[in-house]
Design goal:
344 residues; alpha+beta; 3 domains; six-stranded mixed β-sheet; five-stranded mixed β-sheet; 18% helix; elongated
């Protein structure tokens, strides 16, 4: 069957809207776009609002997304490429030059259109809440041992959780951090994530956890609560030197309900459930561990220089291992202990 172009009358094997390829390219609009586009940007954080949602995007990427979703191109266009040039016309008005390249039935085509972009500045929900000191939950960190580094360790882990959630696009932030007697209070913007963070910290460090909700109002007919999560950290932490009244131990690590310790008498590694940690007392922190210069060593013994008084100390090796130029020791009232060669 013969096909003829309705425009030029040429016989062709393929018709596009009743026209041959040449006439279609010449007469049809390959690209259409509204005369004005709108984009809302938060002046504080630079987040972009599109279709009711705030997203973290670079300005040029946001413009490209708005243009590509607003543009209409020929259904016959293949391998399309879009280039956008922005020319600022005012404080909030831009001229967009949009260049389209591609091919139709293997024939290269291009098209150029112009539109305006009006940028509206509006504070996003997150920045508005930050400015208003908004919070839904408080995580209270307390400990029996008022050591600043313990709180800093847990606080850094809490901040890491927040960064992970933010990278996932979660609308969560730390409103405030207050130092109080016996610990710190961390104010968070999202109660559901605060609950999960409190659970994660408790699983990691153990101790006591308690949740106390407080009714603060109604929203859409539902009760709204602010919740305070108390986490009372245990008296022990990683790096501590412990004693059960008979032997001394190094607290190597903690995970879930388990505590991993090393007996400094024989270097045996033991795993205890947290409920049995009440049988141990804390002798001191990792600051008790000293680096000592090795003077000489054999398979069973080692001589090191005491870093405090520079006297030579002779210690028995629980196992036949070779030390390098230095060895780590722990000095207690009951004697001096040698730590294993592997890093604890």
């Amino acid at each position: 069957m013969k096909l003829f172009c309705v425009e030029c009358g040429k016989e062709t094997d393929d018709l596009l809207n009743g026209m041959c390829i040449d006439c279609y390219i010449k007469r049809e609009e390959l690209m259409k776009i509204p005369g004005r586009l709108h984009l809302t940007i938060c002046p504080t954080c630079g987040s972009v609002r599109y279709k009711g949602e705030w997203k973290k995007k670079e300005f040029k990427d946001a413009v490209k997304e708005v243009v590509e979703k607003a543009i209409m191109v020929s259904p016959y266009l293949e391998n399309k490429e879009i280039e956008i040039d922005l020319i600022r016309k005012g404080k909030t008005l831009y001229e967009c030059k949009i260049l389209l390249n591609g091919n139709i039935k293997g024939k290269p085509v291009n098209s150029e259109v112009y539109t305006e972009l009006l940028v509206e500045k509006k504070t996003c929900l997150t920045c508005s809440r930050k400015a208003g000191k908004y919070f839904e939950a408080i995580i209270q960190l307390r400990t029996e041992r008022e050591e600043e580094h313990r709180f800093q360790e847990v606080l850094e882990e809490l901040k890491a959780f927040i960064r992970e959630y933010q990278l996932e696009g979660r609308d969560v932030f730390i409103t405030n951090i207050k130092e109080v007697k016996g610990g710190i209070d961390v104010y968070l913007s999202d109660n559901h994530l605060a609950k999960k963070i409190a659970q994660d910290i408790h699983s990691r460090y153990g101790g006591e956890k308690k949740a106390s909700p407080k009714l603060v109002g109604l929203k859409d007919g539902k009760r709204v609560y602010r919740v305070t999560y108390l986490i009372r950290l245990p008296s022990y932490t990683t790096g501590d030197i412990l004693s059960d009244g008979k032997d001394f131990y190094y607290l190597k690590s903690m995970d879930g309900k388990k505590v991993h310790i090393v007996n400094l008498m024989n270097w045996l590694e033991l795993t205890c459930e947290r409920k049995f940690m009440k049988n141990f007392s804390v002798v001191g922190s990792r600051e008790m561990i000293k680096e000592a210069i090795v003077v000489s060593q054999s398979k069973e013994e080692i001589q090191v220089m005491d870093p405090d008084n520079y006297k030579t100390i002779e210690l028995k090796k629980p196992r036949s291992v070779h030390f390098g130029r230095t060895a780590r020791i722990v000095k207690t009232e009951n004697g001096i202990f040698l730590l294993p060669t592997q890093k604890l």
